[in-house]
Design goal:
The complex is a heterodimer of chains A (112) and B (115).
Chain A lengths: L3 E3 L2 E5 L4 E7 L6 E7 L5 E8 L4 E4 L2 E6 L4 E6 L8 E7 L9 E2 L3 E6 L1
Parallel strand pairs in A: 2-11
Antiparallel strand pairs in A: 1-3, 3-8, 4-5, 4-9, 6-7, 7-8, 9-10, 9-11
Chain B lengths: L4 E3 L2 E4 L5 E6 L6 E7 L6 E7 L2 E5 L7 E4 L6 E5 L8 E8 L9 E2 L3 E5 L1
Classes of the chains: A mainly beta (112), B mainly beta (115).
Chain lengths: 112, 115
């Protein structure tokens, strides 16, 4: 079935890097997405990666995709307190649907 | 354009009442999505439209829920005879079909509390 899993909590110090991991089950996913949600707010699209890519870098964000293991990760370099939020990975279950399946979210806490 | 907007931002209603939420997508986006998010969970897909056509509905969308997008612009989500289990954040998103990556942009959400 369609499933996306993430670890629930991660804590780092300001200036350190963080890595948030995600596994997904559907191998027909074309794009995979990372979203950020701050308390009481909607979801902000951070970045996405096409399934034929292994890596994508966007400023402080690096996305790594291991399609064989169906594993996706988001690395945030030089974390700031403003990075504290919940991070969701999301995957469309097939190429002919518009919906996204979201993980439970990883709460990132950046301590000063 | 200021992004996806939703109205109201908060709604408190008594069990058994009907509620209606509105979503205005980004103006050039022809796809519009509704999701529901409960505390501690990721968003769950409810339904989506391409222009005015409703293309997919989740099993979560019981017969008490109805969504419309009559002119292919804004959309409404109505919940009839609300139940306490309907309490959640209702999120709307939009995307452009012409965008190869179909990335979805979310609104701020409508938080529903059923008492």
């Amino acid at each position: 079935g369609e499933d996306v899993e993430q670890s629930l909590f991660l804590s780092v110090r300001e200036g350190d890097s963080s890595v948030i991991n995600c596994t997904y089950t559907d191998s027909s996913s074309t794009y995979l997405y990372w979203y950020k949600q701050e308390p009481g707010a909607g979801l902000q699209l951070l970045t996405y990666i096409f399934s034929n890519m292994d890596m994508k870098q966007d400023q402080r964000l690096t996305v790594l995709l291991n399609k064989k293991d169906k594993h996706l990760s988001l690395r945030i370099a030089d974390n700031q307190t403003g990075d504290s939020a919940i991070y969701f990975c999301a995957s469309p279950p097939s190429s002919n649907t518009g919906k996204l399946i979201f993980g439970q979210g990883t709460t990132l806490q950046v301590k000063p | 354009d200021t992004g996806v907007s939703q109205d109201p931002r908060h709604k408190i209603t008594k069990r058994g009442q009907n509620v209606t939420f509105r979503c205005d997508p980004i103006s050039e986006h022809n796809r519009l999505y509704w999701y529901r998010q409960t505390l501690g969970q990721g968003p769950e897909f409810l339904t989506y439209f391409q222009n005015e056509a409703q293309l997919e509905k989740s099993r979560l969308l019981s017969d008490r829920f109805s969504a419309e997008r009559p002119k292919g612009s804004f959309s409404t989500l109505e919940i009839q005879r609300t139940e306490q289990g309907d309490s959640a954040m209702y999120l709307c998103a939009s995307s452009a079909q012409t965008a190869e990556s179909y990335e979805q942009y979310f609104g701020p959400g409508t938080r529903l509390t059923v008492t």
